[in-house]
Amino acid sequence: MTHEIAVIPGDGIGQEVTPAAVDVLGELNIDFEFVHAEAGDETKAETGTALPEETAEIAADADATLFGAAGETAADVILPLRSIVGSFANVRPARAYPGLDALQPETDLVFIRENTEGVYSGIEDEITEGVRTLTRVITEDASEKIAEYGFQYAKRNGYDDVTIAHKANVMRETDGLFLDTAERVAEERGAEYDTALMDALAMHLAMTPEEYGVVICPNLAGDMLSDLAAGLVGGLGLLPSANIGEENALFEPVHGSAPDIAGEGVANPSAMILSAAMMLDHLEYPEEAETVRAAVESVLDSGPRTPDLGGSASTEEMTEAVVDEL
Amino acid sequence: MTHEIAVIPGDGIGQEVTPAAVDVLGELNIDFEFVHAEAGDETKAETGTALPEETAEIAADADATLFGAAGETAADVILPLRSIVGSFANVRPARAYPGLDALQPETDLVFIRENTEGVYSGIEDEITEGVRTLTRVITEDASEKIAEYGFQYAKRNGYDDVTIAHKANVMRETDGLFLDTAERVAEERGAEYDTALMDALAMHLAMTPEEYGVVICPNLAGDMLSDLAAGLVGGLGLLPSANIGEENALFEPVHGSAPDIAGEGVANPSAMILSAAMMLDHLEYPEEAETVRAAVESVLDSGPRTPDLGGSASTEEMTEAVVDEL
Ligand SMILES: CC(C)[C@H](C(=O)O)[C@@H](O)C(=O)O
Ligand SMILES: CC(C)[C@H](C(=O)O)[C@@H](O)C(=O)O
Fold it and tell me: Region entry Disordered: which residue ranges (chains A, B) (predicted)?
């Protein structure tokens, strides 16, 4: 069975780390057909749109998409792409790897971020000059779906601690619905869980991340908390993510296009390769996923590293080392 | 001139740390009249309302209010109180003190949090069963006011780095207005500044807080980022805050009522005493404010400490040590 994979490197280091992940995937004994497509700042400069219709169609038709990064146009590319693949869950693991300098070396978190609504619904208005509103949407359906996904994920991946993040003391009706729904799901499943106000959670994650595992969050809370967790494990260069839909999915590093180092060939390919590993899991190649993860971990532990990790290796050297470990 | 200060200890450790701050203030050569008032969970249990009319009036009539903490009813107490004193700016310093175990010992941040609108406007609706909305409000007036306050604060307190936090790539109209307005204020003042997406900022604050100083934020972003900063300096027990209005103000520790340790007499009084110091600044007693701050710092450095700081002192012992240092 051939898997059609849309490959959208995008801007900046997306152009460097995406081929690295494709190289790693090419070493596995799986029948992939990679279909390349364009998006991002340069595409906008050339074609007038950051996400051309053709790219949207390639992503829609593929079995899964690998996306690198976009620059200024990031929101114009990634938000529509998430919606094209029908993503309802944004899965963001944040793990500290042995051998790397992490602020909190015991961190092993997975954020399960609602990915369709909240402040991302895109409904904004100018009521009168100087007065603008944004309509934050929370539905029972989306809350139920993300909670189901989160508890399932925790069970399947052996996480005992599940935390439901919210700000229902202020957003009483909307986060109230999110919280009540997630608690109902937990109770129906007979699952253990905790709840946490997202402000207090930000503090506790910084201080004692080892006390947390899976964190189920509304959209924007997940955006911030997962970036915070990136800070605890040594930066965005290590964090993969998955955008999971019913029939399609998109995999991308949490990092952006990093214009400061783009073009130098020194971007850390780990987040992108680990995103490809999440894709392997999604396509039901758990062994191959594990092989890729183990290879990355081994290189992070004792192989050549890119400058962001204190090494002097190039993207290519680090990628080759991962391939050698497969 | 007599300063009338409303004193609202509230629930839990609020009952322990608020008297400590009043004791410290009582040692200064300033004519305070303290008017005690009730609010919080216990008040609600007794009177049916968490914030009785009488308490609201006392806070409204006072020159300033000292508030301890509230439990489950926190939002029902603190949000109306902030509005009663006309608070438009929530000022939250987060500093690491020498001699204490901080995750990031170089942290010296001050969050200037917009305190009247954003998701706190309290407009929520049930559109149909299972579909709820919250209207997030951003106005040019409030954005201008908080930006003016923030840049003024930075200048007066010698902070060179000012960062405007936002999520204008997603909340284009609302945070767009916040960001544009704050940038205009900066330019009119000829002030240097940076802007940061609040998710990326969460990561950077965790990794390199020393690169930041004053952070001007929308309401909810300030709520989360300041709690995150608390995690970097060793927890909420050290963080004071001020809610500044045109003619009135309220001072409170960032911590809550801490029911787990309430009643044991071991609550750390630092955040509350430092909040009283912020009140002294506000009432234009800068020397006395500095004296109180120096006394707290000296005790934190080498005096008796409460258990949350690794010591075994009681609230009273730590407070007495601060008084001795005055
Ligand atoms: C680029 C932006 C729209 C996006 C988001 O807010 O989701 C990014 O921050 C992310 O986390 O992937
Ligand atoms: C209790 C709650 C309403 C409050 C807030 O969200 O402002 C608290 O978290 C704070 O930061 O003072």
Answer: 301-326
